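<purpose> Linking amino acid order to shape
<body> The protein record starts here
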Amino acid sequence: MFTWKLVLAYDGSDFHGWQIQPDRPTVQGELREALRRITGEEVLPQGSGRTDAGVHALGQVASFALAAPIPETNLARALNRTLPASIRVLSASRVTSDFHARHSALEKTYEYRIFRGEICPPWRTRYVYALNTPLDLEAMQRAAARVLGVHDFTSFAACDSDSPYHVRSLHDSEWIRAEEDQLLLYRVRGTGFLHHMVRNLVGTFLEVGRGNVEEAAIAAILEARNRERAGPTAPARGLFLVSVDYGP
């Protein structure tokens, strides 16, 4: 058996997330079917994480084992011919048998994109949260810095989170202006993320930007370990899984 690592990009708009679901299109399901058609083998690719319905990826990672001795370039090419155009394999490589897309991951980076122009072009609406109301970006930046380090993120996890351990470590948390594209980006990097965690962070920081939540309240929200204390969940369409780091 050969263990494989794929790096994938996908438009999550028309999928019900990564994880396979009965009678619903998912990224994992499409990848499993493509591998079956190419190799005849029944495998279930494991992703670095389960992106939600409508969430996109620039660098999702998947791993699985195959018996077929396919050259690396041939597998990537065959998958891109078989998969829908909304899913692309950026690279395919054989790795050591102990590699696992989720368990071997050390860090992940996510980006949330907000369009700040008055009229969002229709070709961008699937990939941004269009919001041009006034925001205090400096307050949002200070609020984002308050979640750096090791914290219990229960207040920012979805109520249906199945993780029993909500402590995570964030190494980057910042807002970035991309003036030429009329975008406001939230970029966050950490050891792991809970269900809806990034979208709940964004929703809370936007409340700070609107003046509805004090930036200093972030510490109390974390301490409360109560989802009701944090802000609303930002729409899925603005979120991208940018990359997954596995170290040297």
User: Anything to note?
Assistant: The chain has five helices and ten strands.
